[in-house]
Design goal:
- The radius of gyration is 19 Å and the shape is globular.
- The protein contains 7 helices and 6 strands; from the N terminus they run βααβαβαβααββα.
- It is of the alpha/beta class.
- It binds farnesyl diphosphate.
Length: 253
């Protein structure tokens, strides 16, 4: 056990300190496996187990939105066998876990570019979204074939078409309008981003939406992540002072 998932004294956050939206870069599956002499596929398989625990814990703690970076637009550059593996894990995750997610009132949303995905995966994603659309406990946002620059470019293209058609004036192109054209249009921005594995990068994840997110980098590999690690990251978030470009509350007058 590393410090990241060793229990600390800070009590799990009080309701008003629970971040409404937590985003996670689940990094380190491959290194976790390599250090144990296991194939990378085993690291990803254990990564799905960590994901199950984290979704359950986030719901219990009172997080409203949990966004997970499951497959990036750049992951296509990995070996074909690993890509097949990750696609297989997504299929299995939805087939095996959808009923339980639904029972636990989890709403599933998917962000990213769907057109490049196999038709059966597109169908599974749509089925998951449709079945769970009225659930109200936790929204699990699965970023799959997702890249933030690509998402921003898609939004800009949509707005450009509206401008070209004369339905939107150039002066009406505001930050709000751009936000409304992102895949995350109706979701709050992440309050907290967690990245596991010790790497300290954003890697083309939610670039627009994370303008004011608190970033917490934890030194454990994703397969080791669990409820305690999530609580510790939230406790760290609670110690931060968020100013959104303004002055600190106690010095603001
Ligand atoms: C990073 O580890 C993780 C990924 C690229 C994918 C994350 C996927 C899962 C946790 C399992 C799949 C879940 C779903 C729902 C499909 P890495 O391979 O980059 O690790 P490394 O940096 O140590 O090589």
């Amino acid at each position: 056990m590393s410090q990241a998932n060793a229990p600390i004294n800070t009590a799990p956050s009080e309701p008003d300190h629970v971040p409404r939206h937590v985003a996670i870069i689940m990094d380190g599956n491959g290194r976790w496996a390599a250090e144990r002499g296991l194939p990378r596929s085993e690291g990803h398989r254990r990564g799905v187990e960590a994901l199950r625990k984290t979704v359950r814990a986030a719901g219990e703690i009172g997080v409203s939105y949990l966004t997970i970076f499951s497959f990036s637009s750049e992951n296509w550059s990995r070996p074909a066998a690993e890509i097949r593996d990750l696609m297989g894990l997504l299929r299995r995750f939805i087939r095996n876990d959808l009923a339980e997610l639904h029972q636990n009132r989890v709403r599933v949303r998917v962000i990213g570019e769907r057109d490049d995905l196999d038709p059966d995966i597109r169908r599974l994603l749509e089925e998951a979204e449709q079945l769970t659309q009225n659930n109200d406990k936790l929204t699990l946002v699965v970023a799959f074939n997702y890249g933030a620059r690509q998402e921003i470019a898609r939004a800009a293209r949509r707005i450009a078409n509206e401008v070209a058609a004369g339905r939107v004036q150039p002066a009406e192109v505001t930050a709000d309008l751009l936000s409304q054209n992102l895949d995350t249009a109706d979701m709050p921005d992440p309050d907290l981003l967690i990245r596991t594995s010790g790497e300290q990068r954003i890697s083309n994840f939610l670039l627009w939406q994370m303008a004011y997110s608190e970033l917490v980098f934890v030194p454990i590999y994703w397969p080791e992540f669990d409820r305690v690690a999530l609580e510790n990251a939230i406790a760290e978030y609670c110690r931060r002072e968020r100013r959104f470009g303004g002055l600190a509350a106690r010095t603001g007058s």
